[in-house]
Prior knowledge:
By secondary structure, this protein is mainly alpha-helical. Helix content is 66%, strand content 5%. Strands 1-2 form a two-stranded antiparallel sheet.
Amino acid sequence: MLEPSNNQELPVIPGKRYFTIGEVSELCEVKPHVLRYWEQEFPQLSPVKRRGNRRYYQRQDVLLIRQIRALLYDQGFTIGGARQRLSGDEAKEDVTHYKQLIRQTISELEEVLQVLKTS
């Protein structure tokens, strides 16, 4: 699971519906080839593919990638261990997902408030 300290290090996820592989790479600080590899290893990760086989990730995909990144890079899980952890924590993952969305929304609203105050 993403710890609050890890959220501070990664960029804020913009309020878009779809993200390209390059954008997700920057948002999650993971190279595009790693993202393509993770798609093969984690069945939960399946971006929409459009013409030319271009990948378009949704917000929940970005959150899942950040969770995978935290498990592999920060918590030291192997790919098999991370896959098992993600598949075993489906209900807990939903709660974590919603908490992450709430934290992200609060962060975005605070940024809007700062912009409004300085205007």
